[in-house]
TrEMBL record:
Enzyme Commission number, as recorded: 2.7.7.65
GO cellular component: plasma membrane
Catalytic activity from the UniProt record: 2 GTP = 3',3'-c-di-GMP + 2 diphosphate
Molecular function per GO: diguanylate cyclase activity
Keyword hit for Transport: no
InterPro entries xref list: CheY-like_superfamily (IPR011006), Diguanylate_Cyclase (IPR050469), GGDEF_dom (IPR000160), Nucleotide_cyclase (IPR029787), Rev_trsase/Diguanyl_cyclase (IPR043128), Sig_transdc_resp-reg_receiver (IPR001789)
Modification sites for 4-aspartylphosphate: 55
NCBIfam families with a match to the protein in the record: GGDEF (TIGR00254)
GGDEF domain segment(s): 165-299
Protein name: diguanylate cyclase
GO biological-process terms attached to the record: cell adhesion involved in single-species biofilm formation; negative regulation of bacterial-type flagellum-dependent cell motility; phosphorelay signal transduction system
UniProt xrefs under PANTHER family: DIGUANYLATE CYCLASE DGCM-RELATED (PTHR45138:SF9), REGULATORY COMPONENTS OF SENSORY TRANSDUCTION SYSTEM (PTHR45138)
Length: 299
C-alpha cells in the first residue's frame, strides 16, 4: 500500500544495502539515499525526511555521530531514526537506542519486519506531528494559541545578560464585542473573530512574525527585530483593515462597524524586559486606546 509520499532517507556507505532497501521500500515510500553522513546532512537541510534509516559503520562520521548531530539541533531533533546495522550485540543496540533512535534493526534483516517497523514509526511520527500542531493552534481561528505564544515569548526573551534582539508587541481587543454577541449571537461573533484573525495573519511580514489568540477576543502579534516605528505602522494597518472589513455593528456600539483597540510596546535590542512587563505595558497602552475613544492605536 502506498503511504502518501512519505520521504524516507537511507544512509549507508554500501551501495548494495541501499539497493536492497530501495527494492524493499521503494514502492511504498519516496526513498532517497546518502552514501555518507555529510551528504545526509545536506539532504536533510534541504528537506526533512519523515524517517531516517541509518547505518552505524561508515567512514569519517559514523551513524552514532550523525545521530548525535541531529539530536543536538532543534530543527532535526524529532526526526525518527532507525539504526540498521550489522552490529548485533546488546551493548551496541543499547547504545543506539540511548542515542535517541526510535528503533534498532540488525543485519541480516527480515524484509517484512523492516517494512512493518518503518510503517509503524511513520504512523507514530504523523500522529505526533498532528498532536503537536493541535497543541499549538487555536481551534476557532487557526492562529497560534496562547501556549505557543508564551513559548515563543520565552525563547525571544532570553537571560537578562544575553544581548537579545529587538521585539515589537501588538495587543488587540475588539470594541464593544459583548454588545456584538448580544445583538447578533455567539456564532456570528465567532465568525467575526475568524475574519479579524485573517487580517492579523495577513499583516505578518515573514515566518518569524507570530499572530496568536491571546484570550477570548484578544489577539497578540510578536514582531522580532521590529522597531517601535514599524510596530506602530503594522498595528495601524491592522486597525485600518479591520475597520475596512465593514462588519456592521449594532446601534448601541460606539462605532458603526466592528473595530479594534490596539496597544503596542517594543523592546530595543540589547535591553532586557521580562515577559510580564512587556505584556503589561502593551495592556496599559490598550487600556489607553479604549479610554481615548476605541478604534485606535496607543503605545
Ligand atoms: P470593550 O470595547 O471595552 O472591549 O468592550 P467589550 O464588550 O468588547 O468588553 P470585553 O472586551 O470585556 O468583552 C469580551 C467579550 O468577548 C465577552 C465575550 O462574550 C466575548 N468573547 C470572548 N471570547 C469569545 C469567543 O470565542 N466567541 C465569541 N463569539 N465571543 C467571545
Ligand atoms: Mg556501513
Ligand atoms: Mg477583552
Ligand atoms: Mg473587547
Amino acid at each position: 500500500m502506498m503511504i502518501e509520499s512519505s520521504y524516507v532517507l537511507v544512509v549507508d556507505d554500501q551501495m548494495s544495502n541501499i539497493e536492497l532497501l530501495g527494492e524493499l521500500l521503494g514502492d511504498d515510500y519516496d526513498i532517497r539515499f546518502a552514501l555518507d553522513a555529510e551528504s545526509a546532512l545536506r539532504l536533510i537541510a534541504q528537506q526533512a525526511p519523515e524517517l531516517i534509516l541509518l547505518d552505524v559503520m561508515m567512514p569519517v562520521m559514523d551513524g552514532y555521530q550523525l545521530c548525535a548531530r541531529l539530536k543536538a539541533e532543534p530543527a532535526t531533533r524529532d526526526l525518527p531514526i532507525i539504526f540498521l546495522t550489522a552490529l548485533s550485540s546488546p551493548e551496541e543496540e543499547t547504545r543506539g537506542l540511548e542515542a535517541g533512535a526510535v528503533d534498532y534493526i540488525t543485519k541480516p534483516f527480515t524484509p517484512a519486519v523492516v517494512r512493518a517497523r518503518v510503517r509503524n514509526h511513520i504512523e507514530l511520527k504523523r500522529s505526533k506531528d498532528i498532536l503537536l500542531a493541535l497543541s499549538q493552534t487555536d481551534v476557532l481561528t487557526g492562529l497560534a494559541n496562547r501556549r505557543f505564544l508564551f513559548d515563543r515569548l520565552a525563547s525571544l526573551l532570553p537571560d537578562p545578560e544575553e544581548h537579545s534582539r529587538s521585539l515589537g508587541l501588538i495587543l488587540t481587543d475588539v470594541d464593544d464585542f459583548k454588545l456584538y454577541n448580544d445583538s447578533f449571537g455567539h456564532p456570528a461573533g465567532d465568525l467575526c473573530l475568524q475574519r479579524i484573525a485573517g487580517v492579523m495573519r495577513a499583516a505578518l511580514r515573514s515566518q518569524g512574525d507570530l499572530a496568536a489568540r491571546y484570550g477570548g477576543e484578544e489577539f497578540c502579534c510578536l514582531l522580532p527585530d521590529a522597531t517601535e516605528e514599524l510596530t506602530t505602522q503594522i498595528a495601524e494597518r491592522i486597525r485600518r483593515e479591520v475597520e475596512a472589513l465593514k462588519i456592521p455593528h449594532c446601534r448601541q456600539a460606539r462605532h458603526p462597524h466592528v473595530t479594534l483597540s490596539i496597544g503596542i510596546t517594543s523592546k530595543p535590542a540589547g535591553q532586557h524586559q521580562p515577559i510580564n512587563k512587556l505584556l503589561s505595558l502593551a495592556d496599559q497602552a490598550l487600556y489607553q486606546a479604549k479610554a481615548n475613544g476605541r478604534n485606535r492605536v496607543e503605545k
